[in-house]
Structure formats: structure tokens, C-alpha cells
Amino acid sequence: MRVRIAGSTYALRGPASEEHLRALAGELDRRLQAVIRRNPRLALHQAAVLCALEILEELEEQRRKEHRPRRRTGRSTP
């Protein structure tokens, strides 16, 4: 299957469904275009690195939230 990301066409294949891969490619395209709009002087590869860093920061934040110990309120739960 082929997808377009930031104006370039890429051939993708993998164990995920075509629908899922298209959704991922679409999300990546939206995020990359947003980085390019905020930083129009960047080359595509520079924008891709910034985009990847933003995504990794979101992933790291999610991991921190999931592994954060829950505070005890002193109340017992049934």
C-alpha cells in the first residue's frame, strides 16, 4: 500500500491492517505538517526530527502517568 506523508509517497506493509497503517500515516502527516507550519524554514528531515521528539515526549508523559503511584486517600474501598 502507498501513503503520502508531507508530500512524499511511501510504500508501507506490515502486520497491521491497511486501515490502521493509513490512520497512522495520516496522523504522522498531520503532526509533521503542524511542525512545518510552525517552523517554515526547516528542511523536511529537520521537521521530522522535531516531530519525532514531540511524539516521544507525549509517549514518555503517558508512561509517567501510568506508572505514577496512586495517592492514598485514607478511605477504604469496597
UniProtKB/TrEMBL annotation:
Source organism per UniProt: Carboxydichorda subterranea
Q: What is this protein called?
A: Cell division protein ZapA
Family annotation (InterPro entries): Bac_CellDiv_Activator, Cell_div_ZapA-like, Cell_div_ZapA-like_sf
Record keywords, A-Z: Cell cycle, Cell division, Cytoplasm, Septation
Q: Any idea where this protein resides?
A: Cytoplasm
Q: Give the protein's biological function.
A: Activator of cell division through the inhibition of FtsZ GTPase activity, therefore promoting FtsZ assembly into bundles of protofilaments necessary for the formation of the division Z ring. It is recruited early at mid-cell but it is not essential for cell division.
Chief subcellular location equals: cytoplasm
The Gene Ontology biological process annotation of the record reads:
cell division
Q: Where is the signal peptide?
A: none
State the oligomer form and interacting partners: Homodimer. Interacts with FtsZ.
